[in-house]
Queue: 2 jobs
Job 1
Amino acid sequence: MQQNIQQHRVIVIGAGYTGASAAGRLARRLRREDVSITLVNAEADFVERVRMHQLAVGQDLRPRPFDEMFAGTGVRLRLGKVTGIDVDGRTVSVTAPEGTGGPEALSYDTLVYALGSAWSTHAVPGAAEHAHDIAGRPGALRLRERLAAVAPGTPVVVVGGGLTGVEAATELAETRPDLDVALVARGALGDWLSPKGARHLRKVFTDLRITAHEHADVTAVHADRVTTTEGDVPAAITVWTTGFAVHPIARATTLETGDTGQIVVDATMRSTSHPDVYAIGDAALVAGPGGKPLRMSCASGIPTAWQAADAIAARLTGTKLPTTAPRYFNQCVSLGRKEGLIQYVTADDRAVSAALTGRVAALYKELVCKGAAWGVANPTMGLPTRRRRVTTEPARMKVAAEAA
Ligand SMILES: Cc1cc2nc3c(=O)[nH]c(=O)nc-3n(C[C@H](O)[C@H](O)[C@H](O)COP(=O)(O)OP(=O)(O)OC[C@H]3O[C@@H](n4cnc5c(N)ncnc54)[C@H](O)[C@@H]3O)c2cc1C
């Protein structure tokens, strides 16, 4: 497609759940003659990150190549790794496809930053050397290979009692009942859930013969064990799930970032320091209901993508800004393929007494995962398309004027 000189150039970096959703939504909102949308990603396929524990235990995930997903949408794909951003000069440095020369600087008028996050070892000694992560595909595939090679009775320890930890431990124990699976949690198992939800989680752990080491902090990881504040736990394989950390790219710029390195944004996901930059998903520091920062999740991340896309479209076309604030409804937890837990929550993510359990909950969670991937894989379907003209005033000037 020929780029028109007057086109407003939107670059979306990161094509995970949020970046891909934002690019697709922008394509639905804006006329191709007026706006070019480039989606930059390090990998050629969409990765269903919420299924990395499934990939790690040997399940095969459906391939979702971006060139098929975005065919005919007008979104240009640029495969490459983002290595830096000059937010003052408005360029993104992207590695060139293999064998085609050095990095390229792509210029933008509006940048959507959606690089997501990776695992965080929290600097616990030995974790980086000995533990496995399931925060992304490379880590999950390494763990998959390791699990395939171990003998029955091998002790496997999942560190972290949050959503990812309980999903990983139950998936492992269900698929590999021959292994000796344990989980180490800083607090009590499922202490963020309602009494009904926590009871159900304990029941599933008992049924799957997972040992829970509660109220224990891991202080070191070794090749054959983890050391905790309550003593050592044998671990031929350690799976680390204690939380995510964002990539350092944003922090290396003049963008305003929080202590976590996430980009500070307003209610429209626009950077508080650079009005032509938007941040979404795990990479954004967003105040949720009650001012509490949204946690890194698809549940809150995908709405931030919609919000950013709608806000960019509104600002470019002179229409009304979106006002729907992201909020929580439930936490959908898979506990293997046959069991699940849907914990209903307040707008700011605190458990209420209602929870759905059992096979129905497993099915519900599966539908949620499928729905999220479907939304990303079908970027121009679902909502009605309403492509509007960019206002005659040059968009870049308009954004700058608004910021003043
Ligand atoms: C095992 C697991 C289970 C989870 N379960 C749930 C769940 O049940 N519910 C829930 O709400 N959340 C869950 N999450 C969290 C959820 O996956 C993330 O919050 C979500 O993926 C964040 O979306 P994102 O678009 O911000 O980032 P990502 O989905 O991580 O996408 C980031 C994209 O940027 C690309 N990228 C990164 N760096 C670069 C670079 N330098 N250059 C180019 N491209 C780059 C990546 O390849 C990727 O495509 C789970 C996470 C894990 C790991």
Note: Confidence is low (pLDDT under 50) at residues 394-401.
Job 2
Amino acid sequence: MFIQRALKVRIYPTSNQRTFLNKTLGCCRLIYNLMLDDRIIMYNFLKDDPELLHAFRYKTEKEYKAEYDFLKEVDAFALQQSRRNLESAYKNFFDSVTGNRKGEKVGYPRFKAKKEHHDSYRTGMSIKADLDKQTIKLPKIHDLVKFKHRFNIKSWYRYAALKNITISRSASGKYYASLLYEGEQDYTGYSQSQEKIVGCDMSLARCYVDSTGYSPGYGREYRKIEQKLALLQRWLSRKTKGSRNWEKLRVRIARLQERAAHIRRELQEQESFRLIKEYDVIVIEDLSIKGMSRGLRLGKSVMDVGWGTFVGMLKYKALWHDKTVLVADKWYPSSKMCHVCGWIKEDLMLRDREWVCPECETEHDRDENAARNLRAYGKRVLLQRQELTPMDMGALAAL
Ligand SMILES: [Zn+2]
């Protein structure tokens, strides 16, 4: 099955290129408005004769070009696309009126104002993109246009075909290109091997540990706050509930908790960004089980570590940057299995932070071993061509 995906990048046109892009944007807007104007005039003229109105043949881009010479200087495909945009604006309007289109009512096509917040045009002929050199080739622009993409571009794009490019200018004057690619939904064997995969095991003390052994840790301030909180909470339990001292202590605790939450959030933002930037596929464990098993011992604090928030950040950043977050099966023994020989240590306890495999005698850090197993799980899923659909489909829907 073929699917389409868009890669949005920021482009950095030179001043000449910028002039050309602005001119194309302006011409696309002009031709759209001219065509709309003609349609309105003809409607007023022929509204009592629907048959004639329906049969009326409007001018094409070519005829407008004869009238307005400067239209010849810009991208022809983009002008053509403007007409298509107008035609679909009409179609949506009529379908909305006749009830053929579900959802919110679509209004009559409007003129495009010059000072619009956001302006764009689409082009599709003689375009190219070099994902390694980060350049794109646009019609009628001799030199390549540079783009910058801070993220590792998924290998899927390298095996897909570039269909069209939408150039847009934001209200603040930044330029972007949205590259639409079409390719096989299933990764081919060798593009899979190029996907960068990482496994992450959530950790209480270290935020998470990844399959390379890296873990961020919350830092000294956070640990101090934790210690202080434990102490204050013990004091609080000895005070009379509702008393003045109890109330004062309660506020102190709440402030510290907010401070801790802030530190945690900052770190999670930073770390989820790092993971999405460096990897294509991030494999995590199913937290419902982990939360439960640890919850028995740790009580409420498990709820406070914000693993759910962290996973949420990973997921929305993955959607945004077309990466994949893969959640391992609930029953996959990521902690109990030796990543070297596959031995499953059934009697591994929660308090065992380090353990030695009885089979191959490898010494394990509990979290790192789990993260490595999660990575292996992800690799296997990719190789088995099991669909990565939950996030991929989401990415598709977000186009
Ligand atoms: Zn082993």
Note: The first helix runs from residue 15 to 46.
